[in-house]
Amino acid sequence: MIAILGCGLIGESWAGLMTAHGHDVILWDPAPAALTGIEQRIVRLRGEVRTAMGHAAEADGGVRIATTLAEAVGDADWIQENAPEAAALKHDLYRQIEAVNARAPIASSTSSLTWSELSPALSDPGRLLTAHPFNPPHLMPLVEIYTPDADLRRRAVDFYAGLGREPVTLRKDAVGHIANRLASALWREAVNLVAEGIADVETVDRALVHGPGLRWSVIGAHMAYHLGGGPGGIETYLRHLGPSQQRRWTSLGTPELTPSVCAMLVEGVDAEAAGRSLEQIAAARDRALVRVLAARREGMNDAA
Amino acid sequence: MIAILGCGLIGESWAGLMTAHGHDVILWDPAPAALTGIEQRIVRLRGEVRTAMGHAAEADGGVRIATTLAEAVGDADWIQENAPEAAALKHDLYRQIEAVNARAPIASSTSSLTWSELSPALSDPGRLLTAHPFNPPHLMPLVEIYTPDADLRRRAVDFYAGLGREPVTLRKDAVGHIANRLASALWREAVNLVAEGIADVETVDRALVHGPGLRWSVIGAHMAYHLGGGPGGIETYLRHLGPSQQRRWTSLGTPELTPSVCAMLVEGVDAEAAGRSLEQIAAARDRALVRVLAARREGMNDAA
After folding, report:
1. Would the keyword Membrane be found if you checked this record's keyword annotation (chains A, B) (predicted)?
2. For chain B, which residues make up each domain, given as ranges?
């Protein structure tokens, strides 16, 4: 039994993924409104998981809704915590969990807090790990794991791999883990291009989607430079083009999110959205992800 | 007739793309060795274009090999220049072109030089544009265009769109155009993560491919933050999370490509390659790209 604590977009997406893999889940959210209609949403998310993964339908895991936190975690073997990104709130939750369940791993979906910030709340910090999914978790394969405990780390890798995810483990605790640090670095330059008037929001997004984004969906950045180095690979690249890359780095922008830059971004995103609602854009993203994931299944493993 | 000047990986890839769309091409390279066996390679590349694009085979364009530059450009309506990235060399080439063809646009595939650096060689700079493809051009849709001439810009957008590409136009000349600036910004942090010992090369690449890279293959970075802002979209995101994003930016790494960092990268890429040759990795990348492109064709347009 897996307890899912916090049932917004992340929690319900985890539930779709986990039940698609036959796990029973028990849901808890302090706001009852979050749970209204959630069973139907989980059925839809599970369908997307199966289309993307292409695996034959296993028996669905069961979905139960708990009325109290104690009911949710009492019998749990794994606890996936998706509370808001506030350390004090998560600390309080962990103390309540400890009072009723002393053994199940507590996996925090936190994107912006670190293990070191979260663990002091627990008398047994060895049961805590950060397991950050990429949104939406039922489609995006990445789960970023950190815990200093080697046994728990191995157990977590097995657990998320068993959900068809691609778990990666950090050697050190880092704010933003890996993926959000990369995303933040890229976005800084994306903002700079707009702020400097080199291109508008939509043009920058199109360049990313049809260029580096597409390429990074099948090959990593380091490996791409290996291929960019000619017959000598990355060693040659670094020897010949390392210095010019380093000069390029110093020429990248360091924009500030001033009111006028923010206005350019809001206006540009508005133009790019072209009247589509957030829901329509997210649904289109997920339809495209389902298709791309299904395609990658066939051609990806040898390229990654 | 399209003249392709410089027939390394970029030139032959352009030839595969252009002939798949029914254009006749004439190839020239100062090193005859580059042209050995090129017809067979173009046939293979054309096959990949058609699988990726999913369009019914048009009549193939013809392929001719020129023995002199004058023969290549004499009758050309469009000139795609893929010479090495050295301004003096390209300047010299442009002067030779001017002597035998006074009217066809000269589109430079340059990745690192700018229009402003290249145009002074021409007595008629108005015929020059930068048209930077993303490697490999026969599969990657992006072409980044800059010319200050609005007519030529429109003509170039039509030309590359007619090749099934996604042309984007810059408002200002910029070193690295858009995509390589974004890629460089991301790679800086990717190097930092390795240099700081947070994760190894392969882990960083896996996090990118299964996380942000995959997402950016269907939705841009600006639009992703629009969806990350909750019901208020990017306006809410900027208001509530702008300050923390700006703090994150200042905490990103500014690594130097010292000998020890370079050694970590070379060793890490070597481990990730796991014995596969550059050719095997590039072929696997291209197989995966063909599949992903075919999948995106169906689900993409509404998400981009």
Report:
1. no
2. 2-169, 179-273
ipTM score: 0.96
From the list A100, B69, A99, A125, the residue with the least C-alpha distance to A108 is A125
Q: Which residue from B168, B221, B243 is facing A203, i.e. has the nearest CB?
A: B168
Cα A191 to Cα A205: distance, rounded to the nearest angstrom: 11
pLDDT in tens, A50-72: 988 876 667 899 999 999 999 99
pLDDT given for residue A304 in this prediction: 42
- Say if residues A303 and B287 touch (Cβ distance below 8 Å): yes
Q: Tokens 């060895």, residue?
A: A126
Alpha carbon separation from A276 to B223, B226, B227, B233 (Å, rounded): 12, 12, 12, 12
B213 CB neighbours in chain A (<8 A) are 213, 215-218, 220
Nearest neighbour of B249 by CB, restricted to A184, A215, A217 = A184
Q: State whether residue A78 is helix, strand or coil.
A: strand
CB B217 within 8 A of CB A217: yes
Residue A303 has pLDDT above 60, yes or no: no
Mean pLDDT of chain A: 94
Which of B179, B184, B299 lies nearest to residue A287, judging by beta carbons? B299
For residue B179, the chain A residues in CB contact (below 8 A) are 207-208, 211-212
CATH architecture of residue range(s) A2-169:
3-Layer(aba) Sandwich (3.40)
CATH architecture of A179-273: Orthogonal Bundle (1.10)
Residues B277 and B295: their CA atoms lie apart, in Å, by 27
What are the pLDDT tens digits along chain B (304 aa)? 999 999 999 999 999 999 999 999 999 999 989 999 999 999 999 999 998 887 666 789 999 999 999 999 999 999 999 999 999 999 999 999 999 999 999 999 999 999 999 999 999 999 999 999 999 999 999 999 999 999 999 999 999 999 999 999 999 999 999 999 999 999 999 999 999 999 999 999 999 999 999 999 999 999 999 998 888 999 999 998 899 899 899 999 999 999 999 999 999 999 999 999 999 999 999 999 999 998 887 654 444 4
Kindly identify which residue of chain B lies nearest to residue A268, measuring between CA atoms: B222
Residue A142 phi, psi (nearest 5): -70, 130
B125: its two tokens? 């700079």
Q: With CB atoms and an 8 Å threshold, state whether A262 touches B238.
A: yes
**Which neighbouring-strand residues pair with A28?**
A5
Contact (Cβ atoms closer than 8 angstroms) between residue B11 and residue B85: no
- Is 70 exceeded by the pLDDT of residue A2? yes
Q: Which residue of A has its CA nearest to B283?
A: A303
DSSP letters along A229-244, please? TGGGHHHHHHHHHHHH
Residue-wise pLDDT tens digits, A182-195: 999 999 999 999 99
Structure tokens at A133: 């999914």
Question: How many beta-carbon pairs under 8 angstroms link A with B?
Answer: 412
The reply to whether domains A2-169 and A179-273 share a CATH topology is: no
Crossing angle of helices A259-273 and B233-251, rounded to 10°: 130
Retrieve residue A4's tokens: 């899912």
Structure tokens at A32: 């009852």
The Cα of A17 is separated from the nearest Cα of chain B by a number of Å equal to 16
